[in-house]
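Assemble and predict.
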Amino acid sequence: MKDATLSGLFWLPPAPEDFFEQCEVLERSPGPLGRRLRALASTALDENRLNRLAKVVAALHAAPGALDPLTPFRLGISSNATTHFLVPALIATAARYGFALECIEGGFDQTLQDASDPGSPINRARPDAVLVALDHHGLHLRAEPGDEPSEEASVIGAIAHIDAIRRGFSGNCGAACIVQTLARPVEPWFGSFDAVLPGTPRRLVDGFNRRLAERIRGSADLLLDAAAVAESVGLAEWHDPTLWNIGKVAFSSTYLALYAEAVCRLVAAFRGRSRRCLVLDLDNTLWGGVIGDDGLSDIVLGQGDPTGEAFLQVQRAALALRQRGIALAVCSKNEDEIARAPFRNHPEMLLREDHFAAFRANWEDKASNLRAIAGALSLGLESLVFLDDNPVERGLVRELLPEVAVPELPDDPALYARTLLSAGYFEAIAFSAEDRGRADAYRDNTHREALRESASSIEDYLRSLKTVVDFRPFDPVGRGRIAQLIAKSNQFNLTTRRYSEAEVARMEGDPSRFTLQVRVADVFGDSGMVCVVICVREGDDWRIDTWLMSCRVLGRMVEEAVLGELVRHAREGGVRRLLGTYLPTDRNQLVEDHYGRLGFALLERNESGASHWALAVDKYTPRELPLSVSRSRDLASQPSAPGSAR
Amino acid sequence: MEDAILARLTGIFREVFGERSLSLSRETKASDIKGWDSLSHITLMLSVQRAFRVRLSAAETSQLKDVGALADLLSAKLERS
């Protein structure tokens, strides 16, 4: 019953035969059930199965802890169409991405009221984000053939309407808006001339979509490209006039699962859950044939042969991902030397050894190798995607390491690249200069690891890295990356408090806060901004509201350097104590004893595992660290300077 | 033919209403099934259309008085195709 189409989510394994029985079992089972729900949600579900799974989730919402370790997320939905059918699809799909989703529906066709009335159900619910799901029926784009000024005015008017909705939600509940583009109409008016003549429905929709994307760029809100989803399946399939007439349903329900995927990928990216590393099998995944048996001259790869070209496309897709910051790794059952030979000596290979952050070719099982790769890259298993043509290996990894995403691959290698990219594992909501160099940074990190193994002591090793730690207060230049780190950091994050870019901007120069953005560079390269700290002044104390760090610089004593910097400024500001808090999540156990390790005294630890710590500033003796510090002059003008604090 | 359609409909109804023990007869009406309201009727009709590969108009789906009428409609559509 495998549905090999986009609407059938063909990269996911098929739903189990006994899906409905499993749902009943889950409803009767004691919690926490988050992991089992997620596993069931990670199969290709059609509308009926999405509905059924959503019922299970809804029933478990009432029981405290039953959905653990899924992360709660509240989504407002404001639309001019019927949202009734969206809700269960979104709830079930969100479980696939590790969220226990709760939806708050607005009034039917009352988007502006939902947004601008502080007492509207959505605003009162204080959601984490609001899906603004308007389609062309809900915007007053007036078609006027040949009238360019009215086309312009109509598009500007529709954008102003969207702006008002975004302002409303932002002001009344502070949630980020997820605003969707409009799917083009199917029915032609003039024909191909619709693309040429101003004022046609097609030009209005195109103009609106382009302008909407420009408005969203650099804002705290997100764009859902519903138009792209519709085009990927075909507009005549997407728009269903019967369904609109019967129930004001915005698009054919065949695509509910695909639409919900697009929304949930955005939510996952918004919460920093997108995947970060692509792990590749070699034989029959990157080239045709088995290198150990067929040898360099007989593996199938390269132009002139349809199969050889298909594998080139896989390599091209991997390189394109690398270019946008996704680390690449190899995990193959092979002799290391033999596995490396094509990368070194095959003229048609696009991928080279230098592109990989980790290379594991041996006879251990793939689950162990994937674990080792995650370890070497300081990534969690939930950051990995594993591409392998062998269904047995895929099944094994899914069974042993359910956190790793493993796409189903069709038999034809020509579809491998499309499968990998359609699955949306690497959804992003921003792209920065750091992202551009990130794949190199992962690779450099594994080189550092190699040096660490050869150094006689950790201190010697760290000294040989010639690490420079650079401290600056929050500023407009760093703002985007600061907001990105705040949105994405999960593991080394003491409180996991999320702040939007606008909120970060407000902290710049705020006299009640002391902020740090920390960059790290060494002989192997520039790691860029890796750490963010926000302190809030409370009387004579600084409460450390946020302390997060990229795991790439773990074990480099950067934490110690940051603490030294905090103490130095606290002293200058006449601060008595630094107060630290650890709030546990399912991802940040790594830093449970962060403050303890740094010499803070434990004040209290409550039942949920949250702990509070204090460090007396005048009792702290700075340590000699195997790194050097640079700081910008602006730091001195922060509120810590004597006199400027309250 | 009729029985075969009823059997397929039973499978579809079970999935749509998430009720594995649900059984159907030609006389079954919306009021006999928990959760069969105007919204789930849309989901039901879409599932039926997908399963039988037929297209039903708004007028056709809104006039059905019971499962028998739906089975007859499908049977007529299938004969024509």
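Chain A has three domains: 67-270, 277-422, 457-637.
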